[in-house]
Design a protein that fits this description.
Mean pLDDT: 79
CATH superfamily of the largest domain: GAF domain
Order of helices and strands: HHEEHHEEEHHHEEE
Structural class: alpha+beta
Low-confidence stretches: none
Number of strands: 8
Helix content: 25-40%
CATH topology of the largest domain: Beta-Lactamase
CATH class of the largest domain: Alpha Beta
Strand content: 15-25%
Distance between the termini: 45 Å
Strand order of the largest sheet: 5-4-3-8-7-6
Radius of gyration: 18 Å
Length: 194
């Protein structure tokens, strides 16, 4: 859509439509193409879904982030691997004034996000190579030190790598066969804790 199309559809002024589109671009919901039109960006584009039964996983997993939020007063998320990204499938928000909001449906690069690192760290070397085969800018051998640390610790940290001012700690969830199924994380504004 163009700014004019958006203004007409929403029945707002061109300047209001432009500001709304600019905010959507800033939040990765939209992108501006070379011909100055706007289209859905990565948050709204469908990602390749995991084979996990997401609805069942969400229902089974939800009590755990709810308990974590009760104990920590920080938001908790459950994510699954979707290609080279991790997708939020459940979020439990906290009552803190300064907090990270609901992100269900949003995806982040798995090798950067704390919860993604825990899932990727649990993959075999062959699975890791296959996952990132021909993915520009990602070389599995360069990921090895951080993935080894996540495997050793049994958790991973994302300190402002996916979003400025946000820190997350993630932990792997395995299925009954011991395979990586999902990840659970706490996310908090970086300045909220010493």
């Amino acid at each position: 859509m163009r700014v004019t199309d958006t203004a007409e559809r929403l029945a707002v002024s061109h300047s209001t439509a432009y500001r709304l589109l600019a905010m959507l671009v800033y939040r990765d919901f939209a992108e501006q193409t070379p011909d100055r039109r706007y289209r859905a960006d990565k948050v709204l584009r469908p990602a390749k879904m995991s084979e996990a039964p997401v609805v069942l996983l969400r229902r089974v997993a939800l009590p755990h982030p709810q308990r974590l939020v009760g104990e920590t007063q920080e938001p908790a998320n459950v994510m699954v691997l979707a290609g080279t990204e991790v997708r939020f499938i459940a979020t439990v928000e906290s009552n803190q004034i300064l907090r990270v909001g609901d992100r269900v449906g949003r995806s982040l690069p798995a090798h950067i996000a704390s919860r993604g690192k825990t899932i990727v760290a649990a993959l075999s070397p062959d699975q890791l190579t296959a996952l990132y085969d021909n993915v520009d800018g990602i070389e599995p051998p360069r990921l090895k030190p951080e993935l080894t640390l996540a495997r050793k610790r049994r958790f991973a940290i994302n300190d402002q790598r996916t979003e400025t001012g946000l820190t997350a700690v993630g932990m792997l969830i395995r299925n009954p066969f011991g395979e990586p199924e999902a990840a659970l994380s706490l996310a908090m504004p970086t300045g909220s804790h010493p």
